[in-house]
């Protein structure tokens, strides 16, 4: 899916990859892609403001993604253009749903208890409560 979006627009592909890898909302991924030097320091994203002015916990990124961010020369599109690059049956928020499911499965395989998983994934997604993360998990 992300490759397909990169094919349509390099800037939109980067935003989609950020959403998928970091559990960001589209507006947050667009902000990060537009201003990476403001948030990226030695492979860690810091001080990124999310919905409700909640600041995300620091997020480590792979070297590859860090380089894509810092060396990006493509135009980062506004949300309306970005959302038009999605496949017909998806929205940009689907990347967050996928992140929640994939991360839940990963932590379950590690033997972590359900309540703790909700807490971990909730923090990673910048949710204020685990019930919101449960909503994401039940949506898939």
> Order of helices and strands, N to C?
HHHHEEEHHHHH
Low-confidence stretches: none
Distance between the termini: 17 Å
Total DSSP helices: 9
Outline type: globular
Q: Strand portion, in percent?
A: under 5%
- Assign a percent range to the helix content: 55-70%
With strands numbered from the N-terminus, the spatial order across the biggest sheet is 1-2-3
Average pLDDT, rounded to a whole number, is 92
Largest sheet: 3 strands, antiparallel
Return Rg in Å. Answer: 15 Å
**What is the structural class?**
mainly alpha
Number of strands: 3
Keywords:
140 residues, three-stranded antiparallel beta sheet, mainly alpha, 4% strand
Overview of this structure, please?
With 140 residues, this protein is mostly helical. 60% of the residues lie in helices and 4% in strands. It contains 9 helices and 3 strands; from the N terminus they run ααααβββααααα. The protein has a 3-stranded antiparallel sheet. The two termini are 17 Å apart.
